[in-house]
Amino acid sequence: MSVLDVRDLRMRYGSTDVLTGVTFQAHRGEVLALLGPNGAGKTTTIEILEGFRIRSAGEVGVLGVDPARGDEKWRARLGIVLQSWRDHRNWQVRELLAHLASYYEPYRTPWPADELIERVGLTEHANQRIGRLSGGQRRRLDVAVGIVGRPELLFLDEPTAGFDPEARREFHDLVHQLVDFEDTTVLLTTHDLDEAEKLADRILILAGGRVIADGSADALSRRVNAAAEVRWARGGERFVHSSTESAAFVRELFAQYGEEISDVEVRRASLEDTYMALVRGVESGAGEAAVREFEGVTR
């Protein structure tokens, strides 16, 4: 059974079509990153999957349940980390997490508060009032609130906004632990393409109301005819050349200069290059053929 099974999802607000046929699946223990420009429909898609918004059309299964009909037992299987949480400034960290855990107990075994606090790096602040936490510490608490019920499916909305580099790395480690040891499925939305590339098994790019790309960062880069950067050294000098046929260029380089060539490095198009090329192609209409080809492969 797919953890997420979305087929031809559509959403209309008045006369405006926000989602025009979104289709994708996710399996247990998989990390998906949902990328797209502002207004692409990412938030709408997530809210439909979470059961907070009723879709206009299409079929949606979340943990085998239509989210429009999900009950409390079903909701207890989900974890949600929003961009910001309610202001619990007068609660202590441990007190809040223990209280929230009690809501899950009729349905599943939540994290013990102290173990969870340690996992998100707030042990030194366990008895501190939330109103006195720094922005980064409160963001860690947001993550703890989202996973307190040991979710089978975790939604992360810009989860590391406000994190410093060390906290970001620790959070990435936590996500990998949830996936590796808890078999959690994660759907992540982020504008940080480096984070998406590090965390996600698959990347979905949403534009024009539909999924225009679905695959690993490496697989997506191969769909775009973007130039790779070839770097090499010869005679004590360093050179750089961009080419859409990097393998052929390197062969010609060695054929011409042989052993004079050293330190050859080929840098493929980054996820950012790929993302921008695909989105701009759809927005300009130039990428419609590629999108139709992708949709034909996935059906």
UniProtKB/TrEMBL annotation:
Biological process according to GO? response to antibiotic
Q: Give the matching InterPro entries.
A: AAA+_ATPase, ABC_transporter-like_ATP-bd, ABC_transporter-like_CS, ABC_transporter_ATP-binding, P-loop_NTPase
Q: Example GO molecular function term?
A: ATP hydrolysis activity
Q: Where in the cell is it found?
A: Cell membrane
Report the residue ranges that make up the ABC transporter domain in this protein. 4-233
Give a yes or no for keyword GTP-binding in this entry: no
> Pfam families per the record?
ABC_tran
Q: Which UniProt keywords apply?
A: Antibiotic resistance, ATP-binding, Nucleotide-binding, Transport
Q: Membrane topology per the record?
A: Peripheral membrane protein
Q: Return the GO cellular component terms, semicolon-separated.
A: plasma membrane
Q: What Gene3D superfamilies does the record point to?
A: P-loop containing nucleotide triphosphate hydrolases
Superkingdom as given in the UniProt entry: Bacteria
Please identify the protein, giving its name as recorded: ABC-2 type transport system ATP-binding protein
